[in-house]
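Replying to the earlier thread about multi-chain prediction with a worked example.

Input:
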Amino acid sequence: MTAAAFKSSAEAAPQSGARLLVSTLERLGVEVVFGYPGGAIMPVYDALAGSRLKHILVRHEQGAAFAADAYARKSGKVGVCMATSGPGATNLITGIANAMMDSVPMVCITGNVAQGLMGTDAFQEIDILGVTLPIVKHSILVRDAADVPAAVEEAFHIAASGRPGPVLVDLPKDVQFATTSDDYGFHIPNETSRIDHDAVAAAEAAIRAAKKPLVYIGGGVKIGRATEALRAFVAATGIPQVSTLNALGTVPTDAPRMLGMLGMHGARAANHAVQDSDLLIVVGARFDDRATGKLAEFAPNARIVHFDIDASEVGKLRAANVAVVGELKDGIEALTTRMAGGPALDIQPWVEACVDAARTGAYRYDAPGEGVYAPALLKEVSEAAGDAFVAACDVGQHQMWAAMHCRFSRPEAHITSGGLGAMGFGLPAGIGAKLADPSATVVTIAGDGGFMMNIQELATLKRYGIPLKIVLIDNSSLGLVRQWQELFFAENYSEIDLSDNPDFVKVAEAFGIEAFRIDRRDQVSEGIQRLLAAEGPCLAHVVIDPRDNVWPLVPPGKSNAEMMEGS
Amino acid sequence: MSNTIHIQIDRADGSLQRLIGLVERRGFHIDGINMADEGAFRRIALTIRGRDAGRCIENLGRQIDRLFGVRRIGNDIIQSEAA
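Result:
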């Protein structure tokens, strides 16, 4: 891209680099910044006081990065987090990697030691630009205060454009202190997406030639603001669909031809449809191994039509017969227009077979016993909250149950750490999502393992009075690891026991947060009502049987056709 | 079988590290590097080979092209030669 900086003609009063950072963030429309101060970023925090920015002081920098990530996923705007040098910066890393893996627009601002000290092993000096190189979309070390506005604007542009991702802006302390009268603006280049209409025509021809076409929807559809375009395409053509974890809700999960999630914990009907299809229309997805299972046996009879904004995703893992590279919205709309200009597809037997398989393979919620059945509870939470429901999931069995059983009416309703699979995401993600959309009913769904990884953010909930609802599914173990040890490691249960967890109700109450416990199935409905009706933040501690597993399951390294079912 | 890729890249902080790191992370050995400064740019020739048969140099080229600061790389300047 070409970044043409220009100097404005008016002579401005001298401003510090820190002040220029804050005023640039204000000018870019930033409302919320998640962060934690420290020595090397103190000039920025000095400038922050009295600004229009709402700073959310988290209790650990990882919480700031996760909250900014979820804020971006829910709002569609760039999430912003900041931290000091050294340990502050390294604590952001998991959150930066999370945003990279799921293509989330985020700008991370770190302080650093003064330039003269860089390279001397100074106190709290870390080469954070070097450390983060593999997990950022881009990074900028600002060496002159006059460059701050241009660098920040460029960072925002890069984070949000094309395939989004995290951008690091590292500000040495002397740059924050230095004053300048120069005010460099930044010319945002006009990038127009050019769709190859020959490729779209080839996609149409491939679809018309197929007897068993299937749409494989990825998270890129939501990111590319192509949800409505994709819904119009599937409505116009009647082609059945499967969804990745990060795309759930792009087509509502209860829509008639939405067969469910594909992959390791996918729906049986979805995985079998992929294996049987003769054409996969891949939209904003990347053939992740958790989605494909054994790649060599994935969709063995299918030709591939691949829509993506990132040319380097096309052919990375599976060759495409037709590739349409560019903005998904433009590509899908062009395809829909072409399809609407021709005859309707003759695929009724295939559609009926898919829909029948989805109907007969639908999940059942009549598990025997008195104990809480987590899939049924999560389904009920999502239905009780209705279209306002937003799930901010942690990572583990509860995450898979939420993906499989909750109702999602739009893709922003499901916020999950898909690519990185980062435990500890759920609570700070709930904070970020709720701040992005106060009208939503945001529910953090966490397990006892992941919840403990960022439990300190309960203090953030309390401090700002954020009315987040938390469903803590507690099986007193690292459930997904336990499940794999049971199935694939001869029941050798190694280091998964968490039965010495604290009393989570007491912990929440100690943070000043309402909490109660659900132990039995007959307490579930009343508990959900109480949780959703609470005015402030509220935690429901749900105790389940540690032996409960996530079914069905494709064993690692196997084809998606080989799904295991529990007894 | 090794290949030489020619890249023109901005002289920004970390740009060389970013490029080399990407090539190695994506599964290629770097057998040789040639670099010359050209004002605001660096011109770099990387002689590389895939760590295993599954590594696709065309895809690596697209991943390099995606880096901010890369000004030129293309199939027309990717030259294949016998190892």
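Helices of chain B lie at 15-25, 57-65.

Feel free to reuse this layout for your own posts.
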